[in-house]
Amino acid sequence: MSDATPLPPAAPIKGRGTPVRIAHRFEMQTRELEDDGWGALEEQVLDGQRGAAVATELIEEQARTLINRNDSPDVPFDHAINPYRGCEHGCIYCYARPNHGYLNLSPGLDFETKIVAKMNAAECLRAELGKPGHRPSPINIGSATDAYQPLERRLGLTRALLEILVACRHPYTIITKSAGIERDIDLLSQSAARNEVGVFVSITTLDPWLARTLEPRAAAPHRRLQAVRRLAEAGIPVAVNVAPIIPFLNEPEIERIAQAAAEAGARSLHYTVLRLPWEVAPLFREWLQTHVPDRAARVMARVQELRGGKDYDADFRHRMRGQGPWAELIRQRIDKAAARNGLSRKSPQLDEHHFVAPSRDTAQGSLF
Q1: Of 17, 110, 116, 362, whose CA is between 20 and 30 Å from 130?
Q2: Residue 52: its pLDDT value, please?
Q3: Which CATH number fits the domain that encloses residue 304?
Q4: Is residue 122 predicted with pLDDT exceeding 70?
Q5: Distances (CA, A) of 44 to 10, 49, 55, 105
Q6: How far is it, in rounded angstroms, from Cα 67 to Cα 87?
């Protein structure tokens, strides 16, 4: 998909990151809207009404496997679990959006309204942990889509996974931007007492308007800070991710976010810069033109400076941090902000030595 691929303008939908059902890159056919001069294109709307709310659709799935293996050198974990595909938070910048194309769904509006839930996630995890060859290195939960997105309140898939990990004394980490993680402090504190868990809360901005626009159904900034505080008070090691850093949008807030994180009890500070792979680039460009048109050109010019002149560069050497003088400046600002506020720049080293595999009866089910 070209850096210059345009998207037609569309009315924003309240509570959604994008109103656009952009075609995914695997589609064999594409459709273009054309104005016939009667104003019909201007009245073009999604789901019947301009700006009308779009309901979330739950798609239940029986997964065959759950633990994904990772060999990317710039990702600090070997194993990952995502109980959901798609994310109702609707973050416009989400690098996982293109994955919905594998389901023949749009990385745009479908990604945040058609959520696939792995209903047998706990059974899969129990079976995979019980395999003789399983190595108990830390498993990350929520690396692609948030494990505490709104549907989790009803389905409880993530809590069921935590119950197994805690019982098996398996180390794990969690990445989230939801205050819903507070529900599971009872389980997390058990793992924390044994140095078997680390939590990373992503705080993109402290500006309520920007958060609501960038991440429409994620927790408000003050609620994320409250979650950091409550986790820390329970003895759970919690880090803050300033992620993603977007030039001229949340980039000026780096130092303020670091200070707020430290005051809330975070132990370490981490970051990534904006990533715009595949269909994310045109979606983000459309968002800029809709919400911050006065800054759109400046933002994209600086993003391309960080990416060697392109919207995105997937090279592992600088995929997460960018390259060039602006990338170096961001790194220095993060390091100095962390040092000023007593925050580490390292991830926790978790205990991997007390794993107890599920019993065979537990893994396969007992007749008695």
Answers
A1: 116
A2: 65
A3: 3.80.30.30
A4: yes
A5: 8, 9, 19, 21
A6: 19
The answer to whether position 365 is within a domain reads no
User: What is the number of domains present in the chain?
Assistant: 1
Q: Cα–Cα distance between 8 and 33 in angstroms, integer?
A: 8
For 36-75, what is each residue's pLDDT tens digit?
Answer: 343 433 333 334 334 567 999 999 999 999 999 887 777 7
**Per the confidence metrics, is the pTM higher than 0.85?**
yes
Supply the range of the domain harboring residue 322. 57-356
Specify if 33 maps to a domain: no
Q: Residue 276 domain-assigned? A: yes
| Predicted pLDDT of residue 7 | 62
Q: Other C-beta atoms within 10 Å of 310: how many?
A: 13
Band (pLDDT 50/70/90 cuts) for residue 362 is: very low
Provide the residue count of the chain. Answer: 368
Answer yes or no: is 263 within a domain: yes
Residue type, 338: A
- Report the C-alpha gap between 342 and 363 in whole angstroms: 44
Distance CA 307, CA 323 (A): 6
Share the mean pLDDT of the chain: 90
